[in-house]
Write a structure and sequence with these properties.
Two copies of one chain form a homodimer.
Chain A lengths: L10 E2 L8 E3 L3 E4 L18 E6 L15 E7 L7 E4 L8 E2 L12 E12 L2 E5 L7 E8 L7
Antiparallel strand pairs in A: 1-6, 3-4, 3-10, 4-9, 5-8, 5-10, 6-7, 8-9
Chain lengths: ~150, ~150
């Protein structure tokens, strides 16, 4: 499943033998991008409308979400390797630690994006602002707090 | 480990039989709050200094983090139940879906807070802005994007 091999300026760390907690994939994200190279580097709120389809089991948990114009989306970057501690992004050429970067490559490949809610159709949300691959697993949705408080 | 029993206005959903992916606890958060009732409802950037201690294995991944005045912290709310789809917060008395609330109770109990970085001492970050229990497991750190872009 991993697309990348380590490059110059990258340092690999052995992963622990076991994970400490489990996540449920609660839905799936559909976007126009089917290859990583096609994804925009950073989603923008005037980007294309993408859809987030919630699993039947969790649909009732969407009750009232339409009251929130901006939603924080957490998703699982299932294609990213998890064992790099230092990385050297092509874009900057500067080596930095994984926690000083927003790269998908990190011990827990969880992304956080803020999106604008365009519509809700049953268990599907239509949103703008994502930059992830089509088929990415969803792990959480929350009302966004940006702009009101940290 | 769960502190809460369902109350009026809450709806429970059976959890799936298995989780879909695993997370590593990469460190631990120390705060002044040892009981949930003592935690502030929402951390503020002028709140007390808390410490985030990174596990030895991951310390090199902090390289360069001091360049970022604001950090997004993802942590695992290990005391929260995961099986409510509708909740009725005491504060509002209004029933809403778990995805329309920032309550700790959600299928994947992952919290996201933005903090100000006060200092870095080896593998320990000193920060302001948290509101979680002492001993909460850390799962990710990223440079904050708030204020520059969604």
């Amino acid at each position: 499943m991993m697309d990348d091999e380590p490059r110059a300026g990258e340092v690999v760390m052995a992963l622990p033998a076991a994970t400490d907690a489990g996540v449920y994939f609660i839905g799936v994200i559909h976007t126009p991008w089917t290859k990583r190279g096609d994804c925009p580097k950073r989603g923008t709120l005037d980007g294309p409308v993408c859809s987030i389809v919630i699993e039947e089991r969790w649909r009732e948990a969407l009750t009232g979400i339409g009251d929130h114009p901006r939603i924080q989306v957490l998703y699982w970057m299932h294609r990213a390797r998890r064992d790099l501690v230092l990385q050297t992004p092509f874009r900057t050429g500067k080596t930095a630690g994984s926690f000083a970067l927003r790269s998908p490559v990190r011990p827990n490949p969880i992304a956080s994006s803020v999106v604008t809610l365009v519509g809700v159709e049953g268990g599907t949300l239509l949103v703008r602002g994502l930059d992830c691959l089509d088929g990415t697993p969803l792990i959480d949705l929350k009302p966004d707090r940006t702009g009101t408080s940290a």
